[in-house]
Each structure stands twice: as C-alpha cells, then as structure tokens.
Amino acid sequence: MIPDTSTTAVPGSADDRPVTETPLVGIIMGSKSDLKIMSAAADVLRQFGVPFEITLVSPHRTPHRMVEYAESARKRGLRVLIAGGGGAAHLPGMVAAFTILPVIGVPINSTTSIQGLDSVLSMIQMPAGVPVATVGIDSAANAAVLAIQMLAIHNARLADSLEKYRTTLKDRVMRTIEELRKGGFQDDV
C-alpha cells in the first residue's frame, strides 16, 4: 500500500479535507513545481464532483514509490491516472508500464524542458502496448475532462454533467459572437 501522503479531495469543498470516499482519479506529478499546472486538473474534477487524490511520485527521486503507486492504484479503487511531467517526462510512461489503468499524460513546460516539446515527445512516442493518452502542453484541465469522459461511459450523472458543461461552453461562445455583432463586426456564417 502506498504511504498516505496524498491529499484526497472532498468533491465540492473548498478546503480539500481528507475523506473516506474512494478516489476515482489519481493526479500525480514528479515535483512540487508541477503543482501550479496540475492543480487545474484538481479544480475541474472538483467542479464535477469526482473524488480524486493528488500526490508527488517522482520516477527519478522516488522510483520505488512510483512503482508501488502504479501497481496499487487499481486495487485502491482508482480508475484513471493523470500524470504530469516536465523535461524528460518519464512519469506518465513509467506509470503506464506498471498499471493497466488509463494514464493521461500532461506535458509540462518546466524550467528544464525545451518549451515542453521534449515532454510531449516522450509521452506520445510510447511503445506498442503501453499507451499514454496525451493532452497539450500544460493542459491539466483537459486531462481532467478526458478522465471524466472515461468515467462517464458507465456513470449517467457524469455524462449529464458533461452535456451541461459542453452547453455552457457553446453558450459562452454564442454570447461572445453576439457581443461582437453589437460592436459592428460582421459574421459571415
């Protein structure tokens, strides 16, 4: 069992108190410097009421912890892992090697990366049989949406929430179009 140093979030709470509800999504990163980016995934999961845990799992500094985390994730009730990595970005791929759970990689434009491109390449160039679904650079929020879509396959509440979310996105764009029209811009569509 992985040592309990993670934070489990209360869906909808502002203070993220530890709870007994089993997390469905694990958000992991290699260092504290990744937290600024990866917290966006936590924010989205919280908005949708999806229980999650968030912790550090470094493939280079704590490799045994990484293996233990990946190997125990499914048994502990997790269904999807979101793994952020900058620079060499080994975390998503290495975790994928030790679990059958879907792993969503978030390439991070860190101080040691090449504008995040090295991170992207290390995630998308996985060998056959060990995939890592990869979102855009610093796109942890999209990783959370993708995780929610995976969970929504068998969860009607989440599917309904995603439908409402998409409608909200569409409505926001339509309001902007109307504001542009009022400002004198023409819409050829």
List the helices and strands and how they pair.
Elements: E1 7-8, E2 25-29, H1 35-47, E3 52-56, H2 63-73, E4 80-86, H3 90-97, E5 103-108, H4 117-124, E6 133-134, H5 140-152, H6 156-182
Parallel strand pairs: 2-3, 2-4, 4-5, 5-6
Antiparallel strand pairs: 1-3
Helix pairs in contact: 1-5, 2-3, 5-6
Total individual domains: 2
Give the termini distance in whole angstroms: 57 Å
CATH classification class of the largest domain: Alpha Beta
Relative strand content = 5-15%
Indicate the structural class. Answer: alpha/beta
- Percent helix range: 40-55%
> How many β-strand stretches?
6
Shape: globular
The helix tally amounts to: 6
Q: What's the rounded overall pLDDT mean?
A: 89
The H-and-E topology, N to C, reads as: EEHEHEHEHEHH
> Mind summarizing the main beta sheet?
6 strands, mixed
- Give unreliable regions as ranges: 10-19
Radius of gyration from the alpha-carbon trace, in angstroms: 18 Å
In the sheet with the most strands, the strands line up as 1-3-2-4-5-6
Identify the CATH architecture of the largest domain.
3-Layer(aba) Sandwich
- The CATH topology of the largest domain turns out to be Rossmann fold
Catalytic activity: 5-carboxyamino-1-(5-phospho-D-ribosyl)imidazole + H(+) = 5-amino-1-(5-phospho-D-ribosyl)imidazole-4-carboxylate
Pathway: Purine metabolism; IMP biosynthesis via de novo pathway; 5-amino-1-(5-phospho-D-ribosyl)imidazole-4-carboxylate from 5-amino-1-(5-phospho-D-ribosyl)imidazole (N5-CAIR route): step 2/2
Family: Belongs to the AIR carboxylase family. Class I subfamily.
Keywords: Isomerase, Purine biosynthesis
